[in-house]
Amino acid sequence: MRINKFLAEKGVASRRHADEMIAAGRVQINGVVATLGASVEETDEVFLDGQPIAQGEKKEEFYIMNKPKGVICSVSDDRGRKTVMQLLPETVGRVFPVGRLDYETEGLLILTNDGDTAYRLTHPSNEIPKTYMARIEGTMTEKDLNRIRSGVELDGVMTKKCKAHIVETNKAYTKVHITITEGRNRQVRRMFEAIGRNVEFLKRISIGKLKLTGLDRGQVRALTEEEILYLKGL
Ligand code: URA
């Protein structure tokens, strides 16, 4: 296997960044400085900055991002739109977004290379609570919100019961905190559309106990060990 691919698969860096590390002479194979394009066998010992990179072991990476609107939640886009991957620092290895926030929606997004945890967090049977701040055009009453709470029909299937409360309401708009445990396509926007209301702004503010606090739009940070353990246990 090519050395840059090897480093990417171990979650050390993206392939492009790995090439820069190799070119800078930071990578050694069996004690010899690696050249661009060098190959690695299973029995080889690879070092980065003098630290061994264990064969067969993949470093888990977890990040939290405050996704801005106007960015697509996928690894690549055939329409040339900006993707969340382009907001990641160069040092981040191969990760992918866990679940999706639509193009116009902003807020808490997790990125990881841990497929098992990603699966668990997104599988509807696990009922992981995800909370959104939605700003709805015009005034809303508790009666309106009860329709959302008890479930609406989307594509012929009722949404599950959910929690929602009004944070602020006036003639112009209503701010609602809504917590859903499913992750259907554009679910929150479509739930309000189903009762004839338009969502003007939508932001995910938490997944379980994990909150977006302290991250500006477009910012990313690595999750702490404690946060990773929490997500794995969710
Ligand atoms: N609901 C939506 O409408 N959009 C999202 O991105 C997430 C939940």
What is the structure about, briefly put?
By secondary structure, this protein is α+β, with helices and mostly antiparallel strands.
Q: Which small compounds were modeled alongside the protein?
A: uracil
Distance between the termini: 36 Å
Uncertain ranges = none
Determine and state the CATH class of the largest domain.
Alpha Beta
CATH T-level fold name of the largest domain:
Alpha-Beta Plaits
Structural class label: alpha+beta
Radius of gyration: 22 Å
The ordered string of helix (H) and strand (E) elements is: HHEEEEEEEHEHEEEEHEEEH
Task: Looking at this protein, list some descriptive labels.
single chain; 234 residues; alpha+beta; Structural Genomics Hypothetical 15.5 Kd Protein In mrcA-pckA Intergenic Region, Chain A; Alpha-Beta Plaits; 9-stranded mixed β-sheet; 4-stranded antiparallel β-sheet; 6 helices; 15 strands; 29% strand; binds uracil
Overview of this structure, please?
- This protein is α+β, with helices and mostly antiparallel strands.
- The protein folds into 3 domains: 3-53, Structural Genomics Hypothetical 15.5 Kd Protein In mrcA-pckA Intergenic Region, Chain A; 62-124 and 213-233, Alpha-Beta Plaits, CATH 3.30.70; 129-207, Alpha-Beta Plaits.
- Helix content is 21%, strand content 29%.
- It is built from 6 helices and 15 strands.
- The protein has helices at 3-9, 15-23, 115-122, 142-150, 187-194, 225-233; strands at residues 27-29, 32-33, 46-48, 51-53, 62-67, 96-97, 106-112, 130-137, 153-154, 157-158, 163-169, 173-180, 199-207, 210-211, 220-222.
- The strands form 3 sheets. Strands 5, 6, 7, 8, 11, 12, 13, 14 and 15 form a 9-stranded mixed sheet that branches.
- Strand 9 (153-154) and strand 10 form a beta hairpin.
- The longest helix has 9 residues, at 15-23.
- The radius of gyration is 22 Å and the shape is elongated.
- The mean pLDDT is 93.
- Bound molecules: uracil.
- Uracil binds at residues 101-102, 105, 186-189, 202.
